[in-house]
TrEMBL record:
Its main location: endoplasmic reticulum. This is alpha-1,2-Mannosidase. It comes from Salarias fasciatus (Jewelled blenny). Residues 1-19 form the signal peptide. One of its GO terms (biological process) is endoplasmic reticulum mannose trimming. PANTHER family: ER DEGRADATION-ENHANCING ALPHA-MANNOSIDASE-LIKE PROTEIN 1, ER DEGRADATION-ENHANCING ALPHA-MANNOSIDASE-LIKE PROTEIN 2.
Amino acid sequence: FFACASVSVLWLFSIGSWSQRIQSPKHEETATTCPTVGRGSRAGSYLSFFDGNKDEYVRRYSSFPDTLRVKMKDMARDMFYFGYDNYMKYAFPEDELNPIDCEGRGPDVLNPSNININDVLGNYSLTLIDTLDTLLVLGNVTEFQRAVKLVIDTVSFDKDSTVQVFEANIRILGSLISAHILLTDPKHPFGKVGFEGYDNELLHLAHDLAVRLLPAFENTSTGIPYPRVNLKTGVPADSVNETCTAGAGSLLVEFGILSRLIGDSTFEWVARRAVRALWSLRSNQTGLLGNVVNIQTGQWVGKQSGLGAGMDSFYEYLLKSYILFGEKEDYRMFQAAYESIQNHLRRGRESCNEGEGDPPLYVNVNMFSGEIVNTWIDSLQAFFPGLQVLNGDVDNAICLHAFYYAIWKRFGALPERYNWQLQAPDVLFYPLRPELVESTYLLYQATKNPFYLHVGMDILQSLEKNAKVRCGYATLHHVVDKSKEDRMESFFLSETCKYLYLLFDEDNPLHKSDNKYIFTTEGHVVPIDKRFREKQWNDFFPCEEGALAEREPHSPPCDRIPEERRYTLPLKSVYMRQIDHMVGLF
Ligand SMILES: *[C@@H]1O[C@H](CO)[C@@H](O)[C@H](O)[C@H]1NC(C)=O
Ligand SMILES: *[C@@H]1O[C@H](CO)[C@@H](O)[C@H](O)[C@H]1NC(C)=O
Ligand SMILES: *[C@@H]1O[C@H](CO)[C@@H](O)[C@H](O)[C@H]1NC(C)=O
Ligand SMILES: *[C@@H]1O[C@H](CO)[C@@H](O)[C@H](O)[C@H]1NC(C)=O
Ligand SMILES: *[C@@H]1O[C@H](CO)[C@@H](O)[C@H](O)[C@H]1NC(C)=O
């Protein structure tokens, strides 16, 4: 069995054969090529597998001493403070820290079309706001309170800034709501963090911002919002009528919580209407959605369907909305979407940890035909194993995560796009994204397998080695030559550092069994709370209640992995070796 399994790996040496096979989802493997063992110069490296005692994967990954765990936790904490303290010293009240020049960065006013900057930087102290709840996760109550007061005293959204609705929602609105809830949580999960005189100012700020985002939902004939608004003047004249699916369809978690906190259904209503509109445009053949849509005509402008850029958090928020609000409609949509994904995007062998064939991988296809449209996967898709964990599909999560980890090992980072056919990056930058760490953390919570602590350590050490600069951590411009760009996105502190710290912090309040939390797509902590399952208004869209499947998602799904697997590798070493080889590690 293993012999043939590893033989099928040998086929991968021929790039053509893998890409051919990965393009036909139901390819039947045969074992008739067993005799080719030993062919080719690299084949010898597989033979070491048969020498079980010396298996390098088992040796490397199957334990993680507690002292090392504490050391890594401290390293993650120091990483956060190095970035945070320098932001406060050199950049605040501007939006971001330029970590090489040690200066602040705000919107690019000279070049309004520089959306790479202006979509995100609204001249509203972005990094400080995005970081609030991370301070609590790290247990720094005094600094959290100081930061909250600074936000209250200095931040205003009455700014002539044109930002992306999606970015403002996940980074700013989500953080304000999360910090407000944690400040007022009667269960005090992080100890006494509320302070004298707090008068719901963060909630008022969140509400003010959300009102400024509302014009995006007007004058669109589908209900799918415009991608950008000016915080002072609304939707700019001559705005594009095109938006990506994730941008328009990942607002429900934050807008829904806001509506339920203030008892005004407007926000949830517009967010839900957008999700429903997108959902109604899915292909009736494949059940898939595209990545870019015209908000006036409902025509798909981008017909690519995948799990990365442009689509990622759309799926994430269907499931997370259900977990938070308990609306069955959201779970039905998620289940149907997940099934379409498994049927049309997933390639490779059927089972992660059994059988022969290529490792499972999710490719980009045409939403109508299901045909593969390119041979790259992007760095953002590395979030998906975390979502699979939330959905209870730990097995598939393990395999997809292992693929991204192998890419990380090769480059010490994740290239923005990796071409699995050419075994090379297509797009070379790495802006300190959190998605792989996020999945690593959720898989560790689900399996408690020390393998994931090693993954976290590798990530931490590569960031120290490749990205650390004078005043913080810098975007890698080029994952091969490790040249840098002078930018540290706010998600580095709010997500990358937070998930790294949580991975190694066994005793965090978030890990106590009576505290149940979910993370927004920007890593903001939100309790799963009865309050959010109640609403003061009637259903906006009364509709037939279909049967809800028996299996409900759990968060996190501890104990789903057989006991024995907790103490060995999550993925058999023959398969790890296969993946490492496929991404060119040896
Ligand atoms: C940011 O906002 C402040 C105060 O409203 C204003 O004075 C400043 O010009 C703005 N900066 C940019 C880059 O827009
Ligand atoms: C909290 O953060 C501040 C600012 O970085 C720092 O000076 C202080 O030492 C931190 N406190 C703890 C307990 O970590
Ligand atoms: C919607 O269009 C109408 C008519 O063109 C215009 O008066 C109104 O200001 C628009 N609303 C928004 C929010 O742009
Ligand atoms: C967007 O659509 C509206 C309504 O169909 C149209 O009037 C406007 O010109 C379009 N904008 C652009 C930039 O194409
Ligand atoms: C499926 O959608 C296409 C257009 O996308 C439409 O022409 C066709 O009638 C639809 N088929 C069914 C069975 O609804």
